[in-house]
């Protein structure tokens, strides 16, 4: 499949890396002049395109939009004449209706991916164009399957899915940074702290995912009676840790 990623910044670059690891797709990086994008395209053996007419001539099968949300419909309008291309937009908050207005004949689906797609461990909320026939739905799903877990949601659920799944990695990064600081304060060297924290978060996620247990059940398995963990949990409660996370989700949702 010929896949063009439109806007190769943090998310577009992560998607290109994930796609390049996974399959033998023909990849195109479409972005204004930028040496960083040239370097990435070279590393991933992807075609580099800067001009809209060149992308039109390349006739991609799938366009993935990872341009800044406020300009995505304007960018999309440049490709309105592409026939038969599938369109998948990752632009947060830009509706299928808005995208369809820019590309009236295109089949438009939306997703909210997250940065771990770069290592094929992403979480992707997907709203598929309901008018796509089964074969084309399968084509689209197969094209992104290598990026991580796909969770089908209604379009009205994409914002909250995008907040937890899409913004969430940054919240976890803040937590990992703080845990590492704590370890360094207790005398551990920083690189070892980062390694332990990343491995611990990976394992905690894997366990929760595999068992489908409620996080509170898993927490209770760690907190031995009279032990060290419950003292740490009490300190977290005192500092308002859970409340801070709930507030973070609300703030990212625009409340
Ligand atoms: N960063 C993330 O974790 C996530 C981002 N998204 C969505 O992905 C999109 C991009 O976000 P980021 O990668 O974080 O931003 P970014 O600023 O890192 O990347 C945007 C890229 O678009 C390029 N660009 C600007 N104007 C362009 C144009 N006219 N044509 C083609 N490319 C153009 C920029 O040069 C840049 O490389 C946004 O719509 C955002 O909502 C969605 C989920 C998660
Ligand atoms: O910060 C943002 O707006 C994007 C959407 C989800 C994650 N990053």
From TrEMBL:
It is an enzyme of class 1 (oxidoreductase). Keywords: Amino-acid biosynthesis, Cytoplasm, NADP, Oxidoreductase, Proline biosynthesis. It comes from the Bacteria. Belongs to the pyrroline-5-carboxylate reductase family. Pfam families: F420_oxidored (PF03807), P5CR_dimer (PF14748). GO terms for cellular component: cytoplasm. The gene is proC. GO terms for biological process: L-proline biosynthetic process. The keyword Zinc does not apply. Pathway: Amino-acid biosynthesis; L-proline biosynthesis; L-proline from L-glutamate 5-semialdehyde: step 1/1. This is Pyrroline-5-carboxylate reductase. Signal peptide: none annotated. HAMAP family: P5C_reductase. NADP(+) binds at residues 6-11. Residues 2-93 form the Pyrroline-5-carboxylate reductase catalytic N-terminal domain. Its EC number is 1.5.1.2. Residues 155-253 form the Pyrroline-5-carboxylate reductase dimerisation domain. InterPro entries: 6-PGluconate_DH-like_C_sf, NAD(P)-bd_dom_sf, P5C_Rdtase_cat_N, P5CR-like_CS, P5CR_dimer, Pyrroline-COOH_reductase. The keyword Amino-acid biosynthesis applies. Catalyzes the reduction of 1-pyrroline-5-carboxylate (PCA) to L-proline. It catalyses: L-proline + NADP(+) = (S)-1-pyrroline-5-carboxylate + NADPH + 2 H(+); L-proline + NAD(+) = (S)-1-pyrroline-5-carboxylate + NADH + 2 H(+). It comes from Limosilactobacillus secaliphilus. Gene3D superfamilies: NAD(P)-binding Rossmann-like Domain, ProC C-terminal domain-like. PROSITE patterns: P5CR. GO terms for molecular function: pyrroline-5-carboxylate reductase activity.
């Amino acid at each position: 499949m010929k896949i063009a990623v439109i806007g190769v910044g943090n998310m577009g670059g992560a998607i290109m890396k994930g796609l390049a690891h996974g399959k033998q797709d023909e990849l195109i990086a479409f972005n204004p002049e930028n040496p960083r994008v040239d370097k990435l395209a070279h590393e991933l053996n992807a075609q580099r395109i800067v001009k809209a007419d060149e992308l039109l001539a390349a006739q991609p099968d799938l366009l993935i939009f990872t341009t800044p949300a406020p300009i995505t419909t304007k960018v999309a309008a440049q490709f309105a004449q592409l026939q038969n291309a599938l369109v998948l937009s990752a632009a947060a908050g830009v509706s299928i209706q808005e995208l369809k207005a820019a590309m009236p004949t295109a089949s438009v689906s939306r997703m909210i991916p997250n940065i771990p797609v770069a290592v094929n461990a992403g979480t992707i909320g997907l709203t598929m164009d309901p008018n796509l026939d089964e074969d084309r739905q399968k084509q689209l799903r197969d094209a992104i399957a290598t990026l991580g877990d796909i969770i089908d949601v209604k379009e009205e659920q994409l914002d909250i899915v995008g907040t937890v799944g899409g913004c969430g990695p940054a919240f976890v990064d803040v937590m990992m940074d703080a845990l590492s600081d704590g370890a360094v304060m207790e005398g551990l060297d920083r690189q070892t702290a980062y390694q332990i924290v990343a491995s611990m978060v990976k394992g905690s996620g894997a366990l929760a995912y595999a068992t489908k247990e409620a996080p509170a059940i898993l927490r209770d398995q760690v907190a031995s009676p009279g032990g060290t963990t419950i003292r740490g949990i009490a300190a977290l409660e005192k500092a308002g840790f859970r409340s801070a996370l709930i507030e973070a989700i609300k703030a990212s949702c625009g409340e």
